[in-house]
Amino acid sequence: MTRQLSPGSRLVLASHNPGKLKEIIGLLAPHQMDVVSAGALGLPEPDETEPDFAGNARLKAVAAATASGLPSLADDSGFCVSALNGAPGVVSARWAGPSKDFGAAMRRVHDELGAATDRRAWFISVLALAWPDGHVELFEGRIDGCVVWPPRGLHGFGYDPMFAPEDATETYGEMDAGTKQATSHRARAFAKLLDACFA
Ligand code: IMP
Hints:
By secondary structure, the protein is α/β, with parallel strands linked by helices. It contains 5 helices and 6 strands; from the N terminus they run βαβαβαβββαα.
């Protein structure tokens, strides 16, 4: 039996990424949680030192739960390209550099792909829900699709303008938030969390 979150609980969102925060707040909206971000509590952003999504999601959620004394939810996610052996993957944020320039990060993906004919790509999200006593639950979601060049659309964040999910012609950058949430890796991970942890 997974650990349950009681309705109305205070929940820390252990992310400093505005794009992710907006999506997670949207996903939580129907569930009457008392949500506060790690930034609003003045919690620092821990270094992501683990080699995989699950390790980094756990690290961020545990750091926030320990510092706040409250259940905390973290997302670690990334954009993975088949012809680049899954890169940028767990270092997707780092490809944008300290200035968080995702135009440059998308161009790097395009340049490294060169003339490769395999355009398959996917997003992964691992959500970690940690309690102050160190208990952690992990949930993974994935959406497959393909690389689009040039990037299209102004919605979303990160690599959204260069990714079209399977069976769609629009990129995530062109879709409104609700349409992206219908298929996204984060929404899929969240659906598993909801099933397991929401009474
Ligand atoms: P991290 O989880 O903090 O390591 O950052 C993940 C990075 O992956 C983000 O900064 C984005 O660049 C990228 N990423 C994760 N999820 C999405 C998404 O839904 N759309 C676009 N980019 C994403």
